């Protein structure tokens, strides 16, 4: 056979095989591309598009909330009740992951600061929120290892004198949001915005152990059930702690705590502007309700959590754990009975330190007192721990 013909034949054969290989590779690439295209299509259809839609509608909702906030900024809810948040607005607001944000903030503020960074960082915070370093037990910012430690700074002895003639004093520094008499089982959050006593405290079975709340009990009946002396009335007071305030809270009266109810709740902001917008805000948020007795009967003190304030610490109740995940605390609330037989009761004297917040939040007092009890504070007033919250008979007689 002619060598040229043989070489041509071999060449043709190799060319054919090479063409088949190229065709196979091209087909495989096309198949792979088609598969990836189908996979990407499914990814876009089931993951990306819904996520984009959620982002779009969530963004629209936040814009609507911002617009409502702008409209409400200088309006009073009593004058413009239509500006109080609707159910859908509260739903949108609660979608924001405040618990995760608060835990992240807690982690960040507990990070150790190098000595060279403490003065600029803590100094900036102190200037921004008008913290009075002259009152601090330790006024040297370099001695605070982290921002959280500075939040919880203690005060010098004597800078918060306890009013001796008053039976009820301010439990903390802060701003008075509202106060007054409980009316038909309702309390004013701010003027023009009320919330339910029963929703805030939960079922009133702390006296005789667990029992079913009476079916069909009205708000007024619930209010009356709390009274030890039926000739008394219930009163309430709400104090907001700003970020620059002293963050420890103290006992406002001489009393004994015998029950605690922890509501995991949400961690919405309790800033006064939000309190004017979201009705029942304090009943939505995480809180630890402490119930007991004082000289006139029923007394309760409730530290309320807020955004970036998931950590509420009560010194005599180390079992309290706040700002946990919903999986860790799935129930609406958790009760703890503090029985004298178990030495769990907490006797507190007026002005005695009770606990602390990280950053700032709110204290709600609800208590029984004689009908002539009269507050001597004003909404929006800045108060200091230990200051008297009410007129005393001696002061009234002296003024006469």
Short synopsis of the structure:
The protein has 400 residues and is of the alpha+beta class. It has helices at 3-72, 87-95, 98-109, 115-128, 147-151, 197-201, 219-226, 272-275, 281-284, 393-399, and strands at residues 174-181, 186-190, 193-196, 233-240, 248-250, 255-263, 287-294, 297-304, 312-314, 334-337, 346-348, 353-357, 362-369, 382-383. The longest helix is centred in the first third of the chain and has 70 residues, at 3-72.
Strand content: 15-25%
Spatial separation of the terminal alpha carbons: 139 Å
SS summary, helix count: 10
What is the number of domains? 2
Query: What is the residue-mean pLDDT, rounded to a whole number?
Result: 79
- Which spans have pLDDT < 50 for at least 5 consecutive residues? 3-17, 45-62, 76-80, 395-400
The SSE string, one letter per element, is: HHHHHEEEHHEEEHHEEEEEEEEH
Number of strands: 14
- Please tell me what the overall shape is: globular
- What is the rounded Rg? 31 Å
Topology:
Elements: H1 3-72, H2 87-95, H3 98-109, H4 115-128, H5 147-151, E1 174-181, E2 186-190, E3 193-196, H6 197-201, H7 219-226, E4 233-240, E5 248-250, E6 255-263, H8 272-275, H9 281-284, E7 287-294, E8 297-304, E9 312-314, E10 334-337, E11 346-348, E12 353-357, E13 362-369, E14 382-383, H10 393-399
Antiparallel strand pairs: 1-4, 1-14, 2-3, 4-13, 5-12, 6-7, 6-10, 6-11, 7-8, 8-13, 9-12
Describe this structure in words.
The chain is of the alpha+beta class and 400 residues long. The protein has two domains: 1-74; 151-210 and 217-399, no CATH class. Helix content is 34%, strand content 20%. The model is unreliable at 3-17, 45-62, 76-80 and 395-400 (pLDDT under 50). Heterodimer of a large membrane-associated beta subunit and a small pyruvoyl-containing alpha subunit. It is an enzyme of class 4 (lyase).
């Amino acid at each position: 056979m002619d060598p040229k013909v043989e070489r041509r034949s071999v060449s043709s054969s190799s060319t054919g095989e090479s063409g088949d290989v190229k065709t196979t590779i091209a087909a495989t690439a096309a198949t792979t591309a088609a598969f990836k295209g189908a996979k990407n299509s499914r990814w876009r259809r089931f993951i990306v598009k819904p996520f984009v839609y959620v982002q779009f509608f969530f963004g629209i909702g936040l814009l609507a909330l911002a617009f409502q906030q702008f409209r409400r900024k200088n309006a009073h809810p009593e004058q413009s009740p239509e500006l109080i948040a609707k159910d859908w607005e509260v739903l949108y607001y609660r979608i924001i992951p405040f618990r995760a944000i608060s835990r992240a903030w807690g982690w960040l503020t507990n990070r150790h600061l190098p000595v060279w960074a403490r003065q600029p960082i803590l100094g900036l915070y102190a200037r921004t929120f008008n913290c009075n370093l002259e009152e601090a037990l330790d006024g040297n910012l370099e001695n605070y290892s982290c921002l959280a430690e500075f939040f919880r700074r203690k005060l010098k002895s004597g800078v918060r004198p306890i009013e001796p003639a008053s039976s009820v004093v301010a439990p903390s520094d802060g701003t008075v949001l509202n106060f007054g008499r409980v009316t038909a089982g309702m309390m004013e959050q701010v003027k023009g915005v009320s919330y339910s006593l029963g929703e805030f405290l939960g079922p009133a079975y702390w006296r005789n152990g667990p029992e079913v709340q009476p079916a069909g009990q009205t708000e007024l009946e619930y209010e009356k059930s709390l009274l030890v002396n039926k000739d008394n009335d219930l009163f309430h007071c709400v104090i907001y702690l700003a970020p620059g305030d002293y963050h420890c809270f103290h006992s406002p009266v001489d009393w004994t705590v015998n029950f605690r109810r922890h509501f995991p709740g949400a961690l919405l902001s309790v800033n006064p502007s939000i309190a004017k917008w979201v009705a029942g805000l304090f009943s939505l948020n995480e809180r630890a309700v402490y119930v007991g007795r004082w000289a006139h009967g029923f007394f309760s003190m409730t530290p309320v959590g807020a955004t970036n304030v998931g950590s509420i610490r009560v010194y005599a109740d180390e079992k309290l754990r706040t700002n946990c995940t919903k999986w860790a605390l799935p129930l609406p609330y958790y009760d703890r009975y503090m029985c004298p037989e178990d030495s769990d009761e907490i006797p507190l004297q007026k002005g005695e330190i009770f606990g602390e917040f990280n950053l700032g939040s709110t204290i709600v007092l609800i208590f029984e007192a004689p009908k002539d009890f009269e507050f001597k504070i004003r909404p929006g007033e800045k108060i200091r721990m230990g200051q008297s919250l009410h007129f005393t008979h001696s002061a009234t007689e002296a003024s006469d």
